[in-house]
Each structure stands twice: as structure tokens, then as C-alpha cells.
Design brief:
The complex is a heterodimer. Chain A is an alpha/beta fold. Chain A contains 4 helices and 9 strands, in the order H-H-E-E-H-E-E-E-E-H-E-E-E. In chain B, a hairpin with a 2-residue loop joins strand 11 and strand 12 (383-391). Chain B is globular. In chain B, helix 13 (342-350) crosses helix 14 (353-365). Chain B is α+β, with helices and mostly antiparallel strands. Chain B has helices spanning 25-30, 80-84, 92-96, 104-119, 127-155, 159-180, 200-225, 228-234, 242-248, 253-257, 264-267, 288-312, 342-350, 353-365, 405-409, 413-417, 422-432, 436-440; strands spanning 2-4, 7-12, 15-20, 40-44, 56-62, 65-72, 189-190, 193-194, 331-334, 337-340, 372-380, 383-391, 399-403. Chain B has 18 helices and 13 strands. Classes of the chains: A alpha/beta, B alpha+beta. The interface between A and B is large, with 47 and 52 residues.
Chain lengths: 241, 441
């Protein structure tokens, strides 16, 4: 059975082959959770709210002062990094966390300063991961770095947005711990980290095709049979939003 | 007698007889220079008793010296992060708990703290719920460290330690079972509180355990620490200093064994850890021995915290008061684990239509979480467990990433093992305490 790219099936049909090596994502889009009452397409939605569209809130910069240590961090970075105004796209403070949105090509310069500057000292790169903001804008893949300063006991999040198939410089030369985490982000989202010593898949098999944690990659799965009744795999069930 | 191929044959009355002889070893070995650098590639794992689950190490050996080691992970990848995106926020607990199966309550706690931070209800978590969380996390830390002691003992030749470690862990699992209904994969800590209250019988068991374990711990320390074999296998083995640890992102007991007292319970407290009195044990040897010392000391510190938590346990609600978030059903432990209490089912099915609607909406649909992202880190038995949760305003997580300490820490194996002996790979790897369920998620 072939799947048309635009067919609104909402997932892998039951009779389709299991998602695997021969799967070439992106194949289909799961129904947008922002449309309708239940996030389903076709005739299933009888609520009368099928035309409802929820917009994704836009991420906006937070005005200064940011409060807490956030002002110190941004000021110190601005002082130490001459390209600050060019490289930093947005500064967002939300729920007591500081996020710096950074131009992807500048990320290596920024983390170098974040680690080495005496008033910043983010020695530990806690986490590197990705988020796929499908349908937001062309730069849908966000690479997210969580840095921690052990000296000052602070945390900061750096975010670099790239289009699908885009690349971002690897930070492994500054934070060797990013090695596997960048590999995981490549594996799951297809983000290419230029300058990475060994950018191969780390969790999925080497010959896997597609990047499973992209939003247009279906969950897959098989129906569950219980006492004669069949329950479809989770991504094809009615989604209560 | 005739020669055909590599066997000679001759006819006898019983039939044809073949005589097979080996090759001439002198010519075989003579062609190889014994002093040449002949490298052997050994594939250790993914099924190997001392690789803590399905870890595969590709070792390049020269004699018994490890020239290069390359860890290969991913054999236990179950797509937990992807699955979370298709379930509601509360259901997420049942998935994350299965990641690092030796520390399920930490996975749940990290995830729930992240959800609560997204909801903005961190300060509304009740005193009792926080105390229960601390109590159970510390018991879980002890059980996790006991398994470490047990498996490491086994891997370094102290088989009896394996039996003892698992035996003591069983006491803790009994306590968990009494409270949550399950020995592992509890789904006990929920966004907004904990699933149900701790029964008095469990409190009694914990008190007994507090008396029981220190004596046993002393015995095991006496058994291992003075042992020459144990000392030889651990001292000066798998050395990784503070610089190496921080560069490679290694946290937890391994970092503390190198001398840096970095413990998130102290440095960035959560769940009210700032109100407990405990020390952060460190060592300065930065080797397997140091990690052993640190973990033993941590078990003792955890016992101290458990005792304080028991004393702080006051009657009170265990869930936030907001009915739009709090789980509607009263839960109870039945014969087959935790589920809705019979009284609750009788009420919603027989008496109150509104309760039934409320129950149905909250259980099938779940609560909405305002859009945004948070990162919450807690001190897991193996290091920093970070949960990066993103919400788009819906009832399902948009993305959850678990920064699991096992995954990050395993990167240190080459740094610890290259240039050392093959046997030290086992000791060094064991000292990282990797759990593949958490590593591969």
C-alpha cells in the first residue's frame, strides 16, 4: 500500500509495513493539533468546532531589565562578545529561565565566550537537544543548549533555529560532552553539526532512514487487540486536545 | 592411504577411515612475528554479564592493553520521548518511569517538576507531597546504589556482594510495593503531587529499614574495603579528574569522587532539599575506589534524609487543591496494583453525574499546560537528570527531552579505559553505574 503525501490518514495505516529502514520521512503530516476540537481530520469530529484554529503564540523578546542574574549574564556577554547585537536574535525570560536565541552560525563563538569569560563561566554543558516546531516558519528545527555555571550556580538556555536539512557548527571543541548529544540530535531531528568528529546515529540503527522525532514522522505501531476488539495505535486514536 | 584435501583416508573392514591432523604450528607461528603490533578487535556485548544491560564495547586490544574503546549504545531505545508526545501530561509519568529502571522515582520526579514549572504551580505543591517525594527519592537512591554495589561486586569477583546487595534492595522494593502497588515503574509521583498517601504500614517498614541497613552496610564495608583484591581492582583504576569530568559532562558520584562537591540537592535545591541536613560526600582519588567510598557515604546520607523526612511528615493533602489539575480519582492499591478506589467508582457511577463528567474530562483529555519551555534538573543517583519540557498549550507534551546521566556519563569510558588493561574496562565502566534503560530511553 502506498501512502500519498497529502492523504489525511493521521498516521500509518494498519496494513502498512512497519515504519523501518525503508521508510523515507517526511511522508505525511499528522493532523495539526491546532485545528478543530479534537485534532482529528475527516468526518470524525462531530463537535461542530472542526474549523477552529488555534494559533501558536509567537515568541517575543522580553524587555529589559530581565531581573535576577539574567541582566548580569546578558551584560557580561555583551561586554565580552563584540558581535552580540548581531548574533543574538532574541532574549526571552520565561518562568524564571533565560533563553538566548542565537544565529546558528554564531553558536560556537558564543559558547566559547560563555565558557571562558570570567564573569560568565558556564563550565558545564548540561544538555543539547532539539525541538521541531513544524508549521511555525522555515527555520523549524531548534537546537537547544542548556549551559550551567558551576561557579555562579546559574543556568542559561541557548537556542538556534535552522531549516530542515540545515546545519549548525558543532560545539564539541568547546564542550566535549556535546559529542553524543549532538549525535542524538542529528539522529532524531536530522540537524547536521558541522565539524563534529563522528556525526553518526547513536540511538537508532545505522541504516535507519528518516529522523524519528520530527513532527512529521509518524509514531507507528500496531493495533492492540483485547477481547476481540481492536484499538488502533496511539497516533490514530481520537486525540482529545 | 590416500590424501584428499586436508584429511588422509584409508579403507578398513569397518569402512573408510579419515585421519585429520592439525596444521604445522611451527610454520603457522613462525610466519607471525611475536613482537609485532598485532591488534585484536574484541566485541564486548551487547549481551555480556558485566556491561550493565545492553551496552556494547568495541575494544581494540594489543595484548591485554586497551588501545581504543568505542561504546555503542541504542540497543534499548524504546522511543519514550516520542511516545510522550501522543499521551497527555499525566500519562507521561508512566512512560518516563520506565527510562532508568533502577531510579524510576527520579524520572517521575524530574518530569513532574518540569510539568509543574510549566503550569506555574511549583510553590503550590503541598508540604506533605514534597516530603513524600524526598522520602521516596532517597529510598530509591539507596536501592539504586545497592544495586551498583551488588553488580560491581559481582563484576570484580565478589559474588556474595551481589546477593547481599539485591537482598537489601528487596526491602526497599517492598516498601515501594506497599505504597505504590508496584516494585518498579511506579507512576507514583504525578504532576501536582503524588498518586496516593503513604500507608502507616509502609512508614513502619521504613523505620525498621533505618535500623536494619546501617548494620548491614557496615558488614559489607568491612567485607570489601579491607579486601586486597577489591583494593587492587579499584584503587588507581579508571581515573578521571575534575577537568575531565566537567569537560565530558560527567556529574554525580563520579564527579564527586574527583573532589568537586557538586550536588544539585545542595547547589540548586528543589522539593525543599534546602531544609534537610545532610553532607555531600566527596573523595579525592578520582578512581573506582573513590566512587565506591562516595556511594557508600551517600547511602548513609540518604538514610539521614529519610529519617528527617519521616519526622517532617505531617498529615495534609498530597495533591494541589486546583481541581482542574488534581487527579480526580481516589486511588487505592488493589490486588493487581494501583487503580481507582472502589468507593470512587461507586460514587461517580452511582451518585454524582458531575463527578463522572469531571473524571472523564480530566482522565481522557487531561489538563492544558500554557505554552513555553522549561528545563528542570535533579540529582539522580548517577548525576544530573535534566528534563526539558516544551508545551504548545495543549493537553499533550509538545516535546520532552530527558538528559539522562547514564547517556552522558558513558562517554567517559574511552577516557577511563584507553591505555589500561582489559579488566580495568569492566571496573571503570561499572564505576559509572550506567543503566541502559535510561541511556537509550
Amino acid at each position: 500500500m502506498t501512502i500519498e503525501p497529502n492523504e489525511p490518514t493521521g498516521g500509518v495505516p494498519v496494513s502498512a509495513d512497519p515504519v523501518g529502514a525503508d521508510f523515507d520521512a517526511p511522508a505525511q503530516t499528522r493532523p495539526s493539533p491546532n485545528k478543530g476540537m479534537f485534532g482529528i481530520t475527516g468526518s470524525g469530529d462531530v463537535s461542530g468546532f472542526g474549523g477552529l484554529v488555534r494559533r501558536q503564540p509567537e515568541i517575543t523578546s522580553t524587555p529589559k531589565p530581565y531581573g535576577g542574574y539574567f541582566d548580569e549574564v546578558t551584560d557580561a556577554l555583551e561586554e565580552a562578545y563584540p558581535g552580540f547585537s548581531d548574533a543574538i536574535e532574541k532574549v526571552v525570560v520565561d518562568r524564571g529561565e533565560l533563553t538566548l536565541h542565537i544565529k546558528p552560525e554564531r553558536i560556537l563563538e558564543v559558547v566559547q565566550i560563555m565558557r571562558d569569560d570570567e564573569s560568565l563561566r558556564f563550565e558545564l554543558c548540561s544538555s543539547v537537544s532539539g525541538v521541531d516546531y513544524l508549521n511555525s516558519d522555515a527555520r523549524r528545527l531548534h537546537v537547544i543548549y542548556h549551559l550551567a555555571s558551576m561557579t555562579y550556580r546559574r543556568r542559561v538556555r541557548l537556542e538556534a533555529a535552522i531549516p530542515a536539512g540545515g546545519s549548525v557548527p558543532s560545539v564539541t571543541s568547546v564542550y566535549p560532552t556535546a559529542d553524543w548529544q549532538e549525535r542524538e540530535t542529528y539522529d532524531m531531528f536530522g540537524v547536521i553539526f558541522t565539524g563534529h568528529p563522528n556525526l553518526t546515529r547513536v540511538l537508532m540503527p545505522d541504516d535507519w532512514e528518516g529522523h524519528p522525532q520530527r513532527k512529521d514522522y509518524p509514531l507507528g505501531g500496531v493495533p492492540v487487540e483485547y477481547k476481540g476488539a481492536e484499538i488502533p495505535p496511539p497516533d490514530q486514536r481520537r486525540v482529545y486536545q | 592411504m590416500t590424501q584428499s584435501g586436508y584429511a588422509s583416508e584409508r579403507e578398513t573392514t569397518e569402512g573408510r577411515v579419515f585421519t585429520v591432523t592439525g596444521g604445522d604450528w611451527d610454520t603457522v607461528t613462525g610466519s607471525v612475528d611475536p613482537l609485532s603490533n598485532e591488534k585484536i578487535v574484541v566485541n564486548m556485548g551487547p549481551q555480556h554479564p558485566s556491561t550493565h544491560g545492553v551496552l556494547r564495547l568495541v575494544l581494540e586490544l594489543e595484548g591485554e592493553t586497551v588501545q581504543e574503546v568505542r561504546p555503542v549504545v541504542g540497543y534499548l531505545h524504546t522511543g519514550i520521548e516520542k511516545n510522550l508526545e501522543y499521551r497527555n501530561w499525566t500519562q507521561g509519568t508512566t512512560f518516563v518511569t520506565r527510562a532508568d529502571y533502577l531510579a524510576p522515582l527520579f524520572n517521575e520526579a524530574g518530569y513532574c517538576l518540569a510539568v509543574e514549572k510549566l503550569l506555574g504551580i511549583t510553590d503550590e505543591i503541598t508540604e506533605r507531597a514534597n516530603t513524600i517525594r524526598v522520602l521516596f527519592m532517597e529510598l530509591n537512591r539507596i536501592s539504586s546504589h545497592l544495586v551498583w554495589l551488588a553488580t560491581t561486586g559481582m563484576e570484580l569477583g565478589a559474588i556474595s556482594m551481589m546477593l547481599y546487595g539485591f537482598r537489601e534492595r528487596e526491602y526497599i522494593l517492598d516498601i515501594f510495593e506497599e505504597t505504590t502497588g508496584l516494585r518498579m515503574n511506579h507512576a507514583y509521583i504525578r504532576p501536582g503531587g503524588v498518586a496516593q498517601d503513604v500507608p502507616d504500614s509502609a512508614i513502619k517498614k521504613i523505620r525498621e529499614f533505618l535500623v536494619y541497613l546501617p548494620k548491614k552496610l557496615k558488614e559489607y564495608e568491612d567485607m570489601l574495603s579491607g579486601q586486597v583484591i577489591w583494593q587492587e581492582r579499584t584503587q588507581g583504576v579508571g581515573v578521571l579528574d575534575v577537568t575531565g569530568c566537567v569537560a565530558l559532562g560527567i556529574t554525580g558520584p563520579v564527579l564527586r569522587s574527583a573532589g568537586l562537591a557538586w550536588d544539585l540537592r545542595k547547589t540548586m535545591p528543589y522539593c525543599g532539599y534546602e531544609n534537610y541536613e545532610f553532607d555531600v560526600p566527596t573523595a579525592t582519588t578520582a578512581d573506582v575506589w573513590g566512587r565506591y567510598q562516595v556511594r557508600l557515604a551517600e547511602i548513609r546520607e540518604s538514610l539521614k534524609i529519610v529519617e528527617q523526612a519521616l519526622d517532617r511528615l505531617r498529615p495534609g493533602p498530597i495533591f494541589v487543591s486546583d481541581k482542574k489539575i488534581a487527579w480526580p480519582a481516589q486511588l487505592a492499591v488493589g490486588l493487581d496494583g494501583m487503580g481507582n478506589s472502589l468507593e470512587h467508582v461507586a460514587k461517580i457511577m452511582g451518585q454524582s453525574m458531575e463527578s463522572l463528567i469531571h473524571h472523564f474530562k480530566l482522565v481522557t483529555e487531561g489538563f492544558r499546560v500554557p505554552p513555553g519551555q522549561v528545563y528542570v534538573a535533579i540529582e539522580h543517583p548517577r548525576g544530573e537528570l535534566g528534563v526539558h519540557a516544551v508545551s504548545d498549550g495543549g493537553t499533550h507534551p509538545y516535546r520532552v527531552h530527558m538528559r539522562d546521566p547514564s547517556f552522558v556519563n558513558l562517554q567517559a569510558i574511552p577516557a577511563m579505559a584507553e591505555g589500561a588493561l582489559l579488566a580495568d574496562v569492566i571496573a571503570g565502566g561499572a564505576s559509572l553505574d550506567p543503566v541502559m534503560g535510561g541511556c537509550d530511553r
